[in-house]
Design brief:
- The protein has eight helices and eight strands, in the order ββααβααβββαββααα.
- By secondary structure, the chain is of the alpha/beta class.
- The chain has one domain.
- The strands form three sheets. The protein has a four-stranded mixed β-sheet, covered by helices on one side. It has a two-stranded parallel ribbon with strand order 1-2.
Length: 188
């Protein structure tokens, strides 16, 4: 497993390359070394939290790299998955929810693929009040959710034990990757 990101990810537990993924996609020899590719273009432009970020003075850069990412993935000829938030312009996406895996975070995410995928069924009622891992720690939303009160609570909610808050708020629970990866590799 190899991760690529434009930002340094010093706690990433696997091989990591700091680079623009769109540039990496152009290296055909390197891309041919993989059986499948998962990509997660920036989601801030499509996120429902963009209004919160704007109100907090943390405006988004309004960049949408989904079309370029899709084009680059198709050009590899490999099975692929593109991850993003609800509302992002993905083609025939499936949705995955943390409640389906018994996680305390819901973190609805959508996934587009050139391979048939199945999403999950939400189990919000069984989950109870979720733990939010977004914005700031210790936020309480009247008549709504709350964010984690500690880094340990956030890590447990996400099923990730190596990240700090700033990384967790942008992360995808590894159980999502395992669930979708099993489907993807079953089609290889």
């Amino acid at each position: 497993m190899v991760g690529v990101d434009i930002k340094k990810q010093k706690r990433y537990p696997y091989e990591f390359i700091q680079a623009d993924a769109l540039d990496i996609f152009k290296d055909k020899d390197f891309m041919n070394s993989f059986d499948a590719i998962a990509a997660s273009p920036p989601c801030q432009t499509h996120s429902i939290t963009q209004h919160l970020r704007n109100a907090q003075g943390k405006s988004t850069d309004k960049v949408d790299l989904i079309p370029q990412t899709r084009e680059a993935l198709i050009a590899t000829g490999k099975p692929y998955i593109i991850e993003n938030v609800p509302g992002a312009p993905l083609i025939n996406p499936v949705q995955v929810c943390g409640s389906a895996f018994g996680l305390k975070v819901r973190r609805h995410r959508r996934f587009e693929s050139n391979v048939k995928l199945v999403g999950t069924i939400c189990k919000h009622k069984e989950q109870g009040r979720p733990v939010g891992v977004y914005g700031s720690m210790k936020d309480e939303i009247p008549k709504g959710g709350k964010t984690a009160t500690s880094i340990e609570e956030a890590r447990t909610a996400m099923g990730i034990d190596w990240m700090l808050w700033g990384e967790l708020v942008e992360a995808i629970p590894p159980l999502y990757t395992m669930f979708l990866g099993q489907q993807l590799t079953g089609n290889l």
